[in-house]
Each structure stands twice: as C-alpha cells, then as structure tokens.
Amino acid sequence: MAAYQTVTTPRTTPTDLAGLLLALRTAVAPDVGIQVLDLQTYTLKKNTPWTPAEIAQAQTAIDTAPVRDDAALDVDQKVLKALVLGLWECIPNPTLTKAQLRARILAIWRTL
User: Fold this and answer.
1) What's the maximum distance between 2 C-alpha atoms anywhere in the chain?
2) Cβ–Cβ contacts within 10 Å for residue 86, how many?
3) What residues pair up with 35 in beta bridges, in sequence order?
4) Which residues are registered as beta bridge partners of 46?
5) Is 59 within 8 Å of 5 (Cβ atoms)?
C-alpha cells in the first residue's frame, strides 16, 4: 500500500525536478514519486511505510536540490515542439524513414 509524506522546505527557488527525483530515488527508494504543491511544499509517495531516516534523507534532498535552470527548460520546450511538429509532418507521409524524420526534426528545431 502506498505511503505518503508531506515535506516542507524553507527554500524559495524552483527546483530542478528531474535532479530532485533522481536524488530522492537514490537516497530514499527507487519507487519514490513526488508532487510539488508549491515552492515550499512537496508530497512524496512510495510503496512502503516511511521511516524517520528516510524522511530526513528526503528533507535533505529537497533542501539541497539544484535550482531549475530556465534556459535548459526553454531548450527542452523547443526540442519537444520540434518533435511534435516533425511527427505532425509525418501524418500525410507515413513512408518517411527514421533518418528522414530525424533530419526534419533537427531542421525544425534549428528554426525555433
């Protein structure tokens, strides 16, 4: 049965969620999930009951998580947009090879 733990932090900067999730799964358990309620409140979930040591490790991981890099987020959004637009172009032409699709996606990404 899933066990939930709410953790609050004094930090006021947005966290890099991918880095935080990796840190939590390394420090606490590989099945940890996370829900961000606001900049300072996180709900954590795992499949076994939380121990005091795991709660402390989770608190440390959240308090020391890297700050989200908005420039990297912008690049991620552009990559996703290029992928979607490239796949959209394939709908009328499903015979494209993987190499042709990759070339179209890269061409779209470079124009964004």
Assistant:
1) 56
2) 20
3) 43
4) 3
5) no
In whole angstroms, what is the distance from residue 95 CA to residue 79 CA? 23
Among 19, 29, 31, 30, smallest CA distance to 62 is for 19
Please give the pLDDT value at position 112: 67
Point out the residues of the chain with pLDDT beneath 70.
72-75, 90, 112
Report pTM. Answer: 0.61
**3-63: in CATH 3.30.1370:** yes
d(CA 112, CA 107): 9
Q: Which sequence spans correspond to the domains of the chain?
A: 3-63, 70-111
Tokens representing 47? Answer: 């499949």
CA distance 9 to 85: 39
Q: Which amino acid is at 20?
A: L
Nearest partner of 12 among 34, 41, 32, 45, judged by Cα: 41
Cα(58)–Cα(26) distance, rounded to whole angstroms?
Answer: 10
